[in-house]
Design goal:
heterodimer, A: mainly alpha, about 80% helix, elongated, B: about 350 residues, alpha/beta, Rossmann fold, Alpha-Beta Plaits, six-stranded mixed beta sheet, four-stranded antiparallel beta sheet, about 25% strand, disordered N terminus, disordered C terminus
Chain lengths: ~260, ~350
């Protein structure tokens, strides 16, 4: 019982620590607020007119669920950055020498990401409503959608936690994240209908890319439309990613040493 | 200032605070530690002295439960570093070569966070943070983000963090590497305070003066093995004792001086720039004896002194090389901590 209590309170202490950092590093705060707003505005007003989205009256309705999922996926990036800095600066050594719960360094950071993702989710929905997006599903579905978005963000936080522990510097964490996840988000149904892509890419974007499953689930829950098995599929993908990457990250953390 | 209590939780005085037996650590192709035996009595300081890559940090990592040993055993504060690792962590403090503090928190927030993670409670954490900031002369900087701190201030905060829970055993891994002389002396005084209050300290260093000043006993470590152990005096004594240095009034009398002193020599004296250097067997009375003999031969003395070997000499003799940092791995000297800036504002 004591162990569990410490696991929770230690994670809380470290989550607060991670969150305090954000307003103190304006570039990070920008990443959670201004950057998603910029993305929404650029896509809606620059590409919006050129992209055909059959079945959606307004490109904003098509775009917003996609861009929200993309932003959630990158929200955990600060975890990779932070862990890699902690390793390099010897803080991980300090934490590992303290009588704290071993899990707290990782859970603290990923919990903090949930709060940050909730912040950018709120900002993006607000901006989306301004540029013409409208929820056209039931309130219950919207709430479920918000829950699913935060779950997606949490799953990617664990991927980033693992990345942060295996790379040698915050800079390479950055590169790693962009090379791995950025193409995945574009070769999906997030920004354009996959039908407009060449055949080989279309197969990947429509049928294989789990990111498309998540985006389609978000669309189903936020703007209605045929959900199929996407909501369940996306949930299962998230749980699977969490299971795999939290195991990998914890394993890696146990053996982590500075330099 | 500390309200005592530093002995809190110390092991019974008849047991060593740190004890290792045949401690080994090997990686695939490197033997970082080869059968290291150490013993540190409660309330004393052991200086682990050696060049970079000698195994000092590996030893500290094992003793602070960060690394499992691949052979042998180690007990700290009466607890096994492997079997009792979780319980042991409540009894140790670690300050590393890196100032392991969070740059994006204030000094106060850093110390409170460490207190919370030692599970000493919110109020106690806050109180300790205030006390320690005052003791380490950081009160004015307590509400400032650590990224505005100078290298010396970060080290002090790092050491303060190690002391938050008043651990009975303290591990300091090259605590003053890269610090300017003033900050070093300040840090030494703080460490001496802690020891006076009953804390046991294991300190690694590549600075001989640091070991000489702080350590009750010194273990010289090289290539993963302890190659000598004893008090600073023991180690110096092992070099063969003192050397008499006589500065002659008249350089032309060098030969007469050598002849006069030949009977009290261990080995033949050497002469350089009018200074006669004489290895001697014993300390007591040697100056009086030398003065009598030189006087009898009519050799004028400008200055006469007995010199003891320095730890530098010891190191050179034991390892066959001077105690400078070895190849590569000198980032501490060039890194940000080497630059001591005055605090802003």
């Amino acid at each position: 019982m004591t162990a569990l209590r410490y696991a929770v309170s230690d994670a809380g202490v470290l989550a607060v620590r991670s969150l305090k950092r954000i307003p103190r590093q304006p570039d990070l705060l920008t990443g959670y607020t201004i950057q998603p707003v910029m993305f929404v505005l650029l896509f809606v007003y620059v590409f919006g007119g050129a992209i055909q989205t059959p079945g959606y009256e307004d490109y904003a309705d098509f775009l917003l669920p996609g861009i929200i999922v993309q932003t959630m996926a990158f929200g955990g990036f600060v975890t990779a950055l932070g862990l890699s800095e902690d390793l390099r600066k010897g803080l991980v050594d300090r934490f590992r020498s303290l009588p704290m719960a071993r899990s707290a360094v990782l859970t603290g950071r990923t919990f903090a990401d949930i709060a940050l993702n909730a912040l950018s989710l709120a900002v993006m929905i607000a901006v989306g409503l301004v540029v013409g997006f409208a929820f056209s599903s039931s309130p219950l579905e919207v709430v479920a959608g918000i829950g699913l978005m935060l779950l997606i963000g949490y799953a990617f936080s664990w991927i980033f936690a693992f990345i942060g522990l295996i790379v040698s510097s915050p800079e390479s964490a950055n590169a790693f994240g962009f090379i791995l996840i950025f193409p995945l988000t574009f070769a999906s149904s997030a920004f354009v209908p996959p039908e407009s892509m060449p055949d080989w890419l279309q197969t990947f974007a429509a049928d294989i890319n789990p990111f498309s499953t998540m985006v389609d689930a978000a669309r189903a829950l936020f703007v209605g439309g045929p959900a199929g098995n996407d909501v369940w599929g996306a949930t299962l993908w998230c749980l699977g990613l969490i299971a795999v990457f939290s195991t990998l990250a914890v394993h890696r953390y146990r053996r982590a040493v500075t330099r | 200032m500390d309200g005592g209590g530093s002995n809190h939780g110390a092991p019974p005085s008849n047991r060593p605070a740190i004890e290792t037996e045949g401690l080994c650590k090997s990686y695939k192709d490197v033997q970082a530690l080869r059968s290291v035996d150490l013993r540190v009595e409660p309330g004393t300081v052991l200086g682990l002295l050696g060049p970079n890559g000698a195994g000092k940090t590996t030893a500290v990592r094992i003793l602070t439960t960060l690394l499992p040993p691949t052979g042998g055993s180690a007990r700290v504060a009466g607890l096994d570093v492997v079997a009792d690792a979780a319980a042991l962590r409540a009894k140790i403090g670690l300050a590393g070569q890196y100032a392991a503090v969070d740059e994006n928190l204030t000094g106060t927030e850093n110390l409170e966070m460490v207190g919370r993670l030692y599970h000493i409670g919110r109020a106690e954490s806050r109180g300790r943070a205030r006390e320690l900031l005052e003791r380490f002369d950081l009160t004015d900087a307590g509400e400032r983000l650590v990224r505005t701190y100078s290298g010396g201030m970060r080290r002090r905060l790092d050491l303060a963090a190690a002391l938050v829970a008043r651990p009975p055993v303290l591990f300091l891994d090259e605590p003053t590497t890269g610090l300017d002389p003033r900050s070093r002396i300040g840090l030494w005084e703080t460490i001496e305070d802690r020891v006076a209050a009953g804390t046991t300290v294991l300190l690694t260093t590549q600075y001989l003066d640091e070991a000489d000043r702080l350590a009750d006993r010194i273990a010289v470590i090289d290539h993963g093995s302890v190659i000598a152990e004893g008090s600073s005096d023991d180690l110096k004594g092992r070099l063969g004792g003192e050397r008499l240095e006589v500065t002659l009034e008249d350089r032309s009398q060098a030969e007469a001086g050598v002849t006069a002193l030949s009977e009290i020599c261990r080995e033949p004296p050497s002469v350089e720039d009018g200074i006669v250097r004489v290895p001697v067997r014993r300390h007591q009375g040697v100056i009086a004896e030398a003065v009598r003999r030189l006087d009898a031969e009519g050799v004028g003395i400008d200055d006469i002194v007995v010199r003891r070997p320095t730890l530098d000499d010891v190191f050179l003799t034991l390892t066959g090389r001077p105690p400078e940092p070895e190849d590569g791995d000198q980032e501490q000297a060039t890194g940000e901590h080497a630059i001591e800036r005055e605090p802003i504002g």
